[in-house]
Amino acid sequence: MPSSAPTTAFTAKTAAEPSALPAILGTYKRQAPLFVRGDGVYMFDEHGKKYLDLVAGIAVTSLGHNDAGVMNAMQEALATGLIHTSNLYRTAPGEALAKWFVDHSFASSVFFANSGAEANEGAFKFARRWAKSTGHQAKHEIIAVRGSFHGRMPGTLAATDRPAYRLPFRPLMGGVTIVERELEELRTVLDPETAAAVIVEPIQGEGGVRVVDPEFLRGLRELTRERNVLLILDEIQCGLGRTGSFFAHEQIGIVPDMLTIAKPLANGLPIGAILVNDEVARVMQPGDHGTTFGGGPLLAHVAHHVVQRLSDPAMLQHVRETGAWFGEQLQGIADRTGQVRAIRGKGLMWGMDVHEPAAAIIGRAFEKGLLLVSAGEHTLRFLPPLVITQAELAEGLAILESAIQA
Ligand SMILES: *Cc1c(COP(=O)(O)O)cnc(C)c1O
């Protein structure tokens, strides 16, 4: 064989062994068309068909597609030629983004991760690191509540209350317990000698868009303080403007010890963050945790632009007003069709329990050019871009109503 012959083909399949399997591992059921373009609240498929996007990449593209500010921030970052440095070196965008959060939240320090699950996994580690520093050697337990979703990785899966996600992967990470969403139960479970942290979503997203009772959350904050246990709020889905305040916990009037965020943080670029108070920050030492990519200059520069946009009072007022109107319209659909069991939500995060399987309605809506996602078998979930107008929502509501009636 001449030395110039290609040597990369020897693992390729021959025609004799074709594969019926999808090249991308089959962990998702995907709609058939290829999506090729996005603009504002619309996505376009390969045939030029336009879809109104009430999913926003699952609460990610809050500023919509092809947003001029996001695109410009990306160009500015690319112009430096520096996409990545690793966390061995300092960069200005990461420091500016961290400083922004320190200036605009309870946090004294921020750790950047690459996704929501990673942010929560990190928060669990930080909680255990802190717990050991209290002198109780058996203090390590992480407690989550009924209906929770915190991610698909070992620790976060153990804290996720969805049997179908959990059962094939047992044994799950130890030292993680799911309890009822009730103060009485937590009072019996929270032992200061063994419990490190409680994690809860102020609005449970995947679990069916359940607005957790603010009284429960305020009581939980008090109880965790009493028992010397950390409170972690997971605002990966409900945070960053989604419910009409920049952080969901502002509306509840509590302050967590740690807060995790991710989904919309860079409007589609993968970044997550753990915001920690000074008590937690003080125990973390070099070497205690790490990430190769986390908080790189491109992502951080774009995220810095995004958080300024999403925290703008005019944006938050738009979310509150448009969201309240949207909730009323969903109720109207419920009243007119008789096909809806319940509606829950806040801001631009809503769930609608339907009699039919949600997937059937989502399929018919897709045919009519409307993108919807479920949250459980009988719940439709609405997570539109936060920049959506009332007229655009009205367009979606009309399609939704016809898809529910069909
Ligand atoms: C999506 C989500 C996660 C997991 O985020 P990934 O980026 O998918 O790992 C965790 N918690 C909540 C509340 C979420 O909505």
From TrEMBL:
Its cofactor is pyridoxal 5'-phosphate. Belongs to the class-III pyridoxal-phosphate-dependent aminotransferase family. The lineage of its organism: Bacteria, Pseudomonadati, Gemmatimonadota, Gemmatimonadia, Gemmatimonadales. SUPFAM superfamilies: PLP-dependent transferases. GO terms for biological process: L-arginine biosynthetic process. NCBIfam families: argD, PRK01278.1. Keywords: Amino-acid biosynthesis, Aminotransferase, Pyridoxal phosphate, Transferase. This is Acetylornithine/succinylornithine family transaminase. InterPro entries: AcOrn/SuccOrn_fam, Aminotrans_3, Aminotrans_3_PPA_site, Class-III_PLP-dep_AT, PyrdxlP-dep_Trfase, PyrdxlP-dep_Trfase_major, PyrdxlP-dep_Trfase_small. It comes from Gemmatimonas groenlandica. Pfam families: Aminotran_3.
